[in-house]
Amino acid sequence: MKFTKHWNVKKTAQNMAIPGSGQVANSAGGFAWEITPWQRLDRFLVLGTEGGSYYISEQKLTEANAITLVSLIKSDGEKVVARIVEISDSGRAPKNDPAIFALALAAAYGDVPTRQAAFAAVPKVCRTGTHLFQFVAEAEGVRGWGRGMRKAIQRWYNQTPIDDLTYQAIKYQQRGGWSHRDLLRLAHPKPLTVEHKALYKWIVDGEVTAENARLQAFEQLKTTRNVKQAVRLITDHRMPREVVPTELLTEAKIWEALMESMPMTAMVRNLANMTRVGLLQMKSAATKKVVEQLSNPDRLKRSRIHPIALLLAHATYSVGRGMRGQNTWAPIPSIVDALEEAFYKAFEFVEPTENRYLLGLDVSGSMSMCTVAGTPLSACAASTAMAMVTMQTEPYCMPMAFADQFRAIPLTKRMRLSDAMLHTQAVNFGGTDCALPMEYARKHKLEIDTFVVYTDNETWSGRIHPAQALMEYRQATGIPAKLVVMGMCSNGFSIANPADPGMLDVVGFDASVPQALREFVLS
After folding, report:
1. 32 in a structural domain
2. Residue 203 above 60 pLDDT?
3. Which residues make Cβ contacts (< 8 Å) with residue 192, sequence separation at least 6?
4. Mapping DSSP to helix (H, G, I), strand (E, B) and coil, where does residue 88 land?
5. Secondary structure of 223-241 in HEC code, one letter for each residue
6. What is the pLDDT of residue 55?
7. What single-letter DSSP state applies at residue 455?
8. N or C end of the chain: smaller count of CB under 10 Å?
9. Per-residue pLDDT reduced to its tens digit, 241-290
10. Could you tell me if 209 and 224 lie in one domain?
11. Same domain for 237 and 332?
12. What is the dihedral of CA 273, 379, 452, 32, to 10 degrees?
């Protein structure tokens, strides 16, 4: 009997744990390393759990992450709060929902200093009325209305400048079963200015006073059907789209007025509407303005718009029909191009490392079933976009697709994002063997400095573990190659060996990924 057939630290089938490695079973029946609680926190804050994955439901994935969060909060709650604020405030996550939920857990399960830190962080994390309503709803699910909660709500209202607060009050009047009226009645903030007092009176009693011209304009806009008057009110008082009567939203003049003060995220979200009503046309002034804004890196950064929002907008706008509903439009080519360029610009710019990269895209079946950060984008499509980001920066990249076998994909840096995603989606099926990129490079004698694998980490079908395949490649070539694992799902697993300094696990759609990748490669 050959005992090493069943106990081999150098070559172990992926449906078995590497002996003595500390690996655990993943959700697909294979084995991988469990990421640290702090890594799991980052994955949750950036990727969330909405939609779950192919192997685990949204509910179970949320429960697993919540248990980890509560454990971290109880061991070092103030550090957790600081991390929540850092990722939320920097715009590194596609959605703010996970940060709000995590902050609510910190306010409920932390010790006194942690709860104080969590409540003090509410204005930094809950930057809009919708965020505040969501925080209250999440907090109510895990705690009651204590003194700390009331003081946090009071601070949010009293410390927000009156012009900004009025904007929030009219734009986000109620969400998720909560309204500003509910919160003011429960928190009882004492207004610090005459203007705040007048606004609170309008929120609670509906009474408009002369102290707030914007509220007066809002009340007029609600009832008018005159386009010229509505345009004047929108322009003079920076009215958001949400308060414009539905009947007026078919008028190009209305959208032109809204565009004057429309935030970047809202503009990107409404490109189809503005095209459909005829405001955005070939060579029109409005189209030129949209392209200029999307081409401005500073404006993109200030807006906190996440690359995934731009990727989703590009994917939807370029095809001329919505992912939901029957609306159609004729895409403006210059806007399609600007959205693609903006996607790349939204990531932190980094200097190329001049390393030789093999970019391994997991196109197994599970990558089509797992969506990214609560968007309609599959992990497969998002991985392709992330690989294209690296290809735009680095001159020496070889992209390949794999599932349970190698699959050639003709990706080039000059290829449009939409075409690149079509190539990977066309081969998106099969089991998962994340060792294939390293095995392929070894067998074909490719000289690679860094392997980057984009995956949900649910590998199970290979004859050897990815970490072992990397060791074999190093020994065969003499190249101290590194492995970077881009985790595209917020489960608790990674194929990167935490004991090997040449392997790194990162959150796949974090806006800071290019910089993190560069620092690791050059370290």
Report:
1. no
2. yes
3. 158
4. helix
5. HCCCHHHHHHHHHHHCCCH
6. 45
7. E
8. N
9. 999 999 999 999 999 999 999 999 999 999 999 999 999 999 999 999 99
10. no
11. no
12. 160
Residue 444 and residue 431 in one domain:
yes
Domain end marker among 346, 368, 386: 346
Query: Coil, helix or strand for 117?
Result: helix
Final residue of a domain: which of 198, 213, 228?
A: 213
The residue count of the chain comes to: 523
Domain that holds residue 238: 219-261
Picking from 162, 208, 196, 200, the residue whose alpha carbon sits closest to that of residue 181 is 200
State how far the Cα of 201 lies from the Cα of 204, in Å rounded to an integer. 5
Structure tokens at 235: 């322009």
Closest CA to 350 of 407, 406, 305, 389: 389
Q: Give the Cβ contact number of residue 297 at 10 Å.
A: 11
Summarised one tens digit per residue, pLDDT across range 39-48 is 889 988 887 8
> What would the two tokens of residue 151 be?
């003081």
Looking up tokens 């970019």, which residue turns up? 359
- Tokens matching residue 102: 């995590």
| Residue 336 CB partners (closer than 8 Å, separation 6+) | 314, 317, 318
Contact 464, 354 (CB under 8 A): no
Say whether both 74 and 102 belong to one domain: yes
Tally the domains of the chain.
4
Whether 12 is covered by a domain: the verdict is no
> What is the DSSP code (8-state) at residue 349?
P
Which one-letter amino acid corresponds to residue 320?
G
Indicate whether 306 and 195 sit together in one domain. Answer: no
Query: Any idea what the Cα angle at residue 350 is, between residues 348 and 351, rounded to 5°?
Result: 170
Looking at the fold, whether 364 and 421 belong to one and the same domain comes out as yes
Amino acid at 110: G
Asked if 390 and 478 sit in the same domain, the reply is yes
